[in-house]
Task: structure prediction
Amino acid sequence: MSKLLQGIIVPMITPLTLDGALDIEGLERLVEHILRGEVNALFLAGTTGEGPALSHEIRKKMIARVCNQVKQRVPVVMAAMDSSPAETMNMIIHASDVGAAAVAIAPPFYMSVSQSDLVRYGRAIADASPLPVYLYNVPNANLPRFTLDTLEQLCELENVLGFKDSGGSRDFLIAAIQLFEKRPETSVLVGPEPLLVEALRAGGDGGVSGGANLFPQLYTELYKASTLDDWETVEALHQLVLRVERDFYRVGEGESSLIRGIKAAASHLGICSATMAPPYVSATPEEIAEVALRLERFQEVLLETFSRTGTLVKI
Result:
């Protein structure tokens, strides 16, 4: 049975204008830049997309425009994350209406919730959703997360098609992969890129990789090599993935450094501005200049590695 999500899924940044509106032209350039790298799906309004910091209006406009532009070339997944289950369902219904393929839901935030609450929440959303549902553990350890026991109960639901884990624990990730193996149509996807290769070796289905906003072909070639059991190429490319994290995920304040770095690099590439959603602050001119230097050096190493591994450069 085929899986809806498998391979490299890109958690898209959200291009914004200087006054905080959705940057339509930047969004269109970003989508085409990513798709030229032959990625397997797009993931909107998640952590890398600053989703919870965006108004519902911007989120709805973005999913509608992306679905219209993509025209089913790849699945488009909407992160429907809110403190209100009713608003979560409103976003899911809108995503369904405009052509999204699936949604991802995280535990509601702000209110204290038990794992029993999360089982009830997951069941209610999965039963009501017109789209397939993927469960999502966000990177922030201070927010509620699905435990393995809760995942075991929810993974039995027909409309739950998998799990995206950004928690960062290797042991938890591998246990989650084993939980979902009993349903071959489901997918387990990893967020943190240092764990990408371990996830693939353990039977995971792919990665939701922020660096693919910038270098999509790097990630898709790594995934393709893993399907061919070409682990030598996988390891060579994974070293570059780790360099992406070192060079572009640590710009400015730590809490928002990953998004800031990706947006700074995207601005230098001419894709979109470096503007971030409040309360985050955008990269300074000095930070963008430093990122530009790192970008130039990285692109040289990327091309050399592609040449050495026999990868045909498409972008």
About this structure: The chain has a mean pLDDT of 96.
